[in-house]
Each structure stands twice: as C-alpha cells, then as structure tokens.
Amino acid sequence: MNYTIPITKVEQSKIDALDFDNIPLGTTFTDHMFICDYENGAWVNPRIIPMGMIPTHPAAMALHYGQAIFEGMKAYKDTQGEPMLFRPEQNAKRLNTSADRMGMPNFPEDLFVEGLKELVSLEHNWIPPQQGSALYLRPFMYADEPFIGMRAATSYKFIIMASPAGPFFSKRIKLWAEKQFIRAAHGGTGEAKAAGNYAAAIRPTELAKAKGYDQVLWLDAHEHKYIQEVGTMNIFFKINGEFITPELDGSVLHGITRASVIDLLRSMGYKVTEQKITLDQIREASNKGTLEEAFGTGTAVGIAYIQEIGLEGETIHVSDESPVGLKVNDTLNAIKTGQIEDTFGWMLKTRKELA
Ligand code: COI
C-alpha cells in the first residue's frame, strides 16, 4: 500500500548539542518521531512530528494493565554515507507476534517499514559514523484508551523514536544465574517483547548488579535448571568447536540478532544446534576445559562477550577470549555498514533526504 506520511519539522535542530564521540546511553533523542493512532478498529493519521511529550490520560490502559510492547533496531551508514536498516521487516513481524499475545491490534508491516524509512531519512545526520555506534530505533505500541476495567483497549498509539547510541558494553561481562526470580514460564509472555517482561526483570537485575554482575542469566521457571536467555540478549556457547543456543521453547525471545548469528556461524562452517541447555552442562564443560566461548546477542548490545557466570557460592569460568565471537561481531558490523557484501539480503537502504 502507498502511504502519505506528512512531516512537521522542528524549527531548530538539537543536533549541534550532541558529542558523537561521547553519546550518553539512552538519553538523547533526535528531533522527530513517527506516530500513528488506532481508532475505531483502524490505524489512522500516520505522521512525523517534532519529538516531544504526548498528552496521556491518567486512566490510559497501558499504565494500569500493561498493554505495551516494543521493538529495538538500529540504522547504520554505508560506505557512501547512505542510511541502512538491518532486517526491519523482521521487527515488524515480531511486533505483531507480541501484539497478538497481548491482545493488541496488529500494525501494518509495510507501514512499519515505511515509517522507519521516512524517519531515518529525515534524521540521517543523527546516525553516528563511529564504529560500534548507530542510531537506535525504538518502535512501540501502547493502549491509550482511558478506561478502568479489564479488557483489550480500543485505542492505541504506535510511535517510533530514534536515539543515537554508542557501544553498550566495552568489556567482557559477568552474568548472574538467577535461581530465585524467573523471567518467563510456559504459557506466559516470555516470547513477546512486552514492557512488563522488562519490568519484572528490573529488581533481579539491580540485585545482580549489586553483587558485581552485569546482567541476569535467566533459568526456566520450573526447575531453575535450563538456560533461557540473558537480561537484554540471547546467548550462545561454544563447546568443543560447536555452538549451542537455547531452543525457542515459547519462553525465549525470538532475537533477530540471534537468528542472524546462527546464519552467520553456519556460513562460517560451524555447527549450531538450538537445544535445551542446562547450567550443569555449562559447568561440566568449563571444568573439562571444553567451554571455549560464550556470548550474548541483541540489538542494543550487538555481541557481548561473556567472561563468567556466577551463582550462589560458585563461579563458572567461561573464557577470557572470544575469537569466533569477535569474528561474528566484525562480520555483522561490516555487513551493516556496507563494508562487505550483504549476501544474506539483510540490509534495506533508505534515502538520505526527503523532498
Ligand atoms: C534491544 O536490544 O534492542 C532491547 O530491546 C533491549 C533493551 C531493553 C535495551
């Protein structure tokens, strides 16, 4: 479908205030945002407007019953300075999977991609050129109908905002294997990118950080035995030359970086198996010296190299080096910035300027 997306531009850009070499994490936003309303059963009035406050009724249902979902993705510049998006159609699909689980309306996938392209074209000067930096894009949807009562809302907003981002982790990370709190149980919302999943993770993450860890390693809800995922990432282990990653069992987020890393590793000749993985299995491999690498994958973090996993009274040493992880990271970055050919067909070019 062809959409008309009217644009109201800011009078004065804020870009001059940004130091691209020192981008503060998650606090800088570009000049504009894409917004669309859901009313009377249809998405209407897609538009780009100056970034700013949105009037919200105190009874907006998202605030009370948590109908709120989001996506995370990044825009890069290729070697000619043209803006590029990484697999945006996958984010559009995943948003709608989340929407289905949370009783929210689907958002048209072509409008999702079109809105992103228009916003990124307009904001292309905000894409940091530095290696490891990018323009983080945050599409999200929430229920804005003012109503007290338990049912699906009838009005929603879909918004895309953009925030320039530097590298997430600059060091190898330590994970805390969490046995008291859980992230997701079968039949729950673990597969959805629902705001509430992250809300429930905040306290356990703070406790893990207070112990000196960077993120939580989530275990299954029933036995606290099987590895699911990490705070903001999926996870891969290299044991005896082969890679394993937790299978998508309904409680694990379908990471787009995860899927891309599986394809990349296989194209590099590695065997990758999606399977159940126990913490015991990782401990045993570490003790035997066959645990060669582990890394997390996610949009915000990219690839995060894991040094150790802590649990009550014990540390599982993973590794001090991640040669394959590094290679995967470099290759992914080279694809995303057009430095090597995108043989997977992952990148979508956008325009630099609008009429
Ligand atoms: C992302 O990696 O884009 C995420 O959505 C994780 C976020 C909580 C930082």
Short summary:
With 355 residues, the protein is an alpha+beta fold.
Topology:
Blueprint: E1 32-39, E2 42-50, H1 61-65, E3 68-70, E4 73-77, E5 83-86, H2 88-101, H3 109-122, E6 134-143, E7 156-165, E8 173-178, H4 195-210, E9 215-219, E10 227-230, E11 234-239, E12 242-246, H5 256-267, E13 272-275, H6 279-288, E14 291-298, E15 302-311, E16 314-317, H7 323-336, E17 347-349
Parallel strand pairs: 8-9, 8-15, 12-13
Antiparallel strand pairs: 1-2, 1-7, 3-6, 4-5, 4-6, 5-17, 6-7, 9-10, 11-12, 11-14, 14-15, 15-16
This protein binds 2-OXO-4-methylpentanoic acid (COI).
Question: What descriptive keywords fit this protein?
Answer:
355 residues; alpha+beta; D-amino Acid Aminotransferase, Chain A, domain 1; D-amino Acid Aminotransferase, Chain A, domain 2; 9-stranded mixed β-sheet; 8-stranded antiparallel β-sheet; 7 helices; 17 strands; 24% helix; globular; binds 2-OXO-4-methylpentanoic acid
